[in-house]
Amino acid sequence: MIPNNFEYIRANSVQEALQLLSQKGDGARLLAGGHSLIPAMKLRLNAPETVIDISGIQELASIRRDGDRLHIGALVTHRTVETSDEVKSSCPVLSEAAALIGDPLVRNRGTIGGSLAHCDPAADYPALTLCLGAEIEATGPSGSRTIAADDFFVGMFETALQSGEMITRVTFPVLGKGTGAAYEKFSHPASRFAVVGVAAMVTLDGGGNCNSVRVAITGAGPSVFRATKVEQALTG
Ligand SMILES: Cc1cc2nc3c(=O)[nH]c(=O)nc-3n(C[C@H](O)[C@H](O)[C@H](O)COP(=O)(O)OP(=O)(O)OC[C@H]3O[C@@H](n4cnc5c(N)ncnc54)[C@H](O)[C@@H]3O)c2cc1C
C-alpha cells in the first residue's frame, strides 16, 4: 500500500497546470481531491512520475448560474454540490445524488471534475451528467472545447479527454417547468459505489404525456450508458 516514488508539483492556475502537463508528458497525472488517484497509486494500479496538484486553483472552484445554464467548476467538491443553494434550486437532483457519494470524508475532498475524468464504471456523476445532457469543458494547450456528455464517456476509465487537456467546468441545464429528474442507486454497503444507479429526466407536454425522456445507468456495464429502448418506450 505504498506508492512508487513520484515528483509532486503544485499548480496555482489553469495556465500553470496546462504548462506542466505538456512539459511532463504522459508520465504526469493531475491530482484534484485524490480520492481515486491516491488509492490507485497505493495499489500501484497507477504509477505517475509526476503528480500535479490542482486542488488549490480557485478559478475552478465556483458555481454560477447563467440563465438556464448551471456552471460547476471542475474542483467543486461533492459536499459543495450537495449543500449549494444554487444547485438545489437549479438542478436539485444533482444535490440529491452528491449526498449519496461515499462518506463525508470522500464528499469533502472529491471533486466533480475528478469523478468525471476518472470515469469509474460505478461512479454516480457520470449517470447524472449523461442523463441531464450536460456539457464538459475541456481546456488544453490550444484553448477550450465543449464535449457533450453523450460523447464524453468512452469506456471503462476512458473519456474523450485528449492528452494535455483537463476538465475546467461542467454545465448542466436548469430544470424548467414540466421537467423532473431523479436518481436512485443500490449502493455497495462498504464503499457506497453504485452496484447499479439509474438517473432519469422526464419532460411532460401540456397534456401530461412524456415529451422527452433520458435515462442513464451506471454500475451495470463497462461504462455509463443510456437506456435508449426505455427512453423510446416512455416517450409519448
Ligand atoms: C471510500 C470511497 C468511496 C467512494 N464512493 C463513491 C461513490 O459512492 N460514488 C462515486 O461516484 N464515487 C465514489 N468514490 C470516488 C470519489 O467520488 C472520488 O473523489 C472521485 O471519483 C474522484 O475525484 P477526485 O477529485 O478525488 O479525483 P482524483 O482522485 O484527484 O483524480 C482522479 C483522476 O482524475 C484526474 N483528474 C482529476 N481532476 C481532473 C481534471 N480537472 N481534469 C482532468 N483530469 C482530472 C486525475 O488525474 C486522476 O486520473 C469513492 C472513493 C472512495 C475512496
What does this structure look like?
With 236 residues, the protein is of the alpha+beta class. It has three domains: 7-53, Uridine Diphospho-n-acetylenolpyruvylglucosamine Reductase, domain 2, CATH 3.30.43; 60-173, Uridine Diphospho-n-acetylenolpyruvylglucosamine Reductase, domain 3; 179-234, 2-Layer Sandwich (Enolase-like, domain 1), CATH 3.30.390. The chain has helices at residues 14-24, 37-42, 78-83, 85-90, 92-98, 104-109, 112-118, 125-131, 149-152, 228-234; strands spanning 7-10, 28-31, 50-53, 63-66, 69-73, 135-140, 143-148, 153-155, 158-159, 166-173, 179-187, 194-204, 210-218, 225-226. The strands form four sheets. A five-stranded antiparallel beta sheet has the order 4-5-10-6-7. The termini are far apart. Flavin-adenine dinucleotide is lined by residues 29-37, 39, 74, 101-102, 106, 110-111, 113-115, 117-118, 120, 123-125, 166-167, 191-193. The site of flavin-adenine dinucleotide has 30 residues, from strand 2, helix 2, helix 7 and strand 10.
